[in-house]
Amino acid sequence: MKSKTFKALQISENAEKQYVREIITRQISDLPTGEILVRVHYSALNYKDALSSIGNKGVTRNYPHTPGIDAVGVIEMSESPDFKIGDEVIVTSYDLGMNTSGGLAEYIRVPARWVVPLPMGLSMREAMINGTAGFTAAMCISSLINNGLSPKKGKVLVTGSTGGVGILAVAMLKKLGFDITAVTGKSEAHEFLTKVGASEILSREDLDDKSGRPMLKSVYAGVIDTVGGNILATALKSLTYGGVAAICGLVASPDLPTSVLPFILRGNSLFGIDSAECPMPLRKKIWQKLATDYKPADLEFLATEISLEEVPEKLDLMLRGGALGKYLVRLG
Ligand SMILES: NC(=O)c1ccc[n+]([C@@H]2O[C@H](COP(=O)([O-])OP(=O)(O)OC[C@H]3O[C@@H](n4cnc5c(N)ncnc54)[C@H](OP(=O)(O)O)[C@@H]3O)[C@@H](O)[C@H]2O)c1
């Protein structure tokens, strides 16, 4: 019997070693093995997808490949006792979109252990406005709160604030009552950031200390950093006594040019966040928070809906550091 076909973004390497993006028709029988077949309704764009689309071997080893580390949809086939046909589910992280055919397609097939039931309080659309970006922002916030951060402790700084992780962090911190300083490279995005919840906006240059001083004025009780490099080093030098920082990204640099001094003289703490291999019990708790306490009043305001055909152009924009909020990819 002929296998059902579906639409997918495919990245392939041509004879000139360039990575070519096209929308193709694929067969369900070509998907990897797995207990759960999901008809994808929405995906979302992440920086990792942009890296996969240009042949970054740290993300994707083999091409042709369909990227997309995020997907939400409805189960069409289940070989797992934990899920049934018709269940609405979220699949993010693990190997999805890296070396497993990803969510920028109308179907995915994945192991049951990667699948999270859509929590009450989140629509499929809202789940993907969050996606890995929102999930990571929530992991950062949860880690800071679990380590003593509260609104009365002082300001929280968010870097890369108009990107996916950054804007969701700003929106969730606002919901939780924090005073937020946002760092951005986009002067045109100040109004957007203010509407989402930032009370102060700094340029990247404002947070790029070149004085060589080991510590700066104490300003921030918390930091959520998505960029790394000297912006992160400057943020760490500006923590208050007992201040806490959560780091998850490296769009500026994987380096961290700092010293032990802010940590041993101000009792600061630095927490690394990894969403990809987050264990399932914590994963479910974080999705629960995304559906309740952390859920911003207006998630739609953070997202731009695009079609699969518009994905390549937005991936290029992300690679240029130009992403503004979340790109929600409609597949239903
Ligand atoms: N650890 C994890 O589990 C995890 C999960 C998700 C994402 N991440 C990482 O987090 C980072 C952000 O991901 P994302 O999906 O939010 O990316 P994104 O949507 O592309 O946003 C990144 C933002 O960073 C800022 N930026 C870009 N280039 C910069 C530069 N050279 N210097 C300083 N700032 C720069 C820009 O915001 P402004 O213009 O506002 O400054 C940009 O919009 C990536 O490194 C990604 O790999 C990690």
What characteristics describe this protein?
332 residues, alpha/beta, Quinone Oxidoreductase, Chain A, domain 1, Rossmann fold, 2 domains, seven-stranded mixed β-sheet, six-stranded parallel β-sheet, 25% helix, globular, binds NADP nicotinamide-adenine-dinucleotide phosphate
The largest sheet, given as strand count, sense and whether it forms a barrel, is: 7 strands, mixed
Helix/strand class: alpha/beta
Task: Give the total of beta strands.
Answer: 15
> Could you tell me how far the N terminus lies from the C terminus, measured between alpha carbons in angstroms?
25 Å
Q: Give the total of domains.
A: 2
> In percent terms, what proportion of residues is strand?
25-35%
Which hetero ligands occur in this complex?
Answer: NADP nicotinamide-adenine-dinucleotide phosphate
Q: Specify the CATH class of the largest domain.
A: Alpha Beta
Mean pLDDT: 96
What share of residues is helical?
A: 25-40%
* CATH homologous superfamily (4th level) name of the largest domain: Medium-chain alcohol dehydrogenases, catalytic domain
Question: What fold name goes in the CATH topology slot of the largest domain?
Answer: Quinone Oxidoreductase, Chain A, domain 1
Uncertain parts? none
With helices defined by DSSP (H or I, 4 residues minimum), what is the helix count?
A: 8
- Just name the CATH architecture of the largest domain: Alpha-Beta Complex
Rg from Cα:
20 Å
Concise summary:
The protein has 332 residues and is of the alpha/beta class. The chain has helices at 47-52, 124-146, 164-175, 190-196, 229-237, 261-266, 280-291, 311-319, and strands spanning 5-13, 19-27, 36-44, 70-78, 88-92, 107-110, 115-117, 155-158, 180-184, 200-203, 220-225, 239-247, 269-272, 303-306, 326-330. It is built from 8 helices and 15 strands.
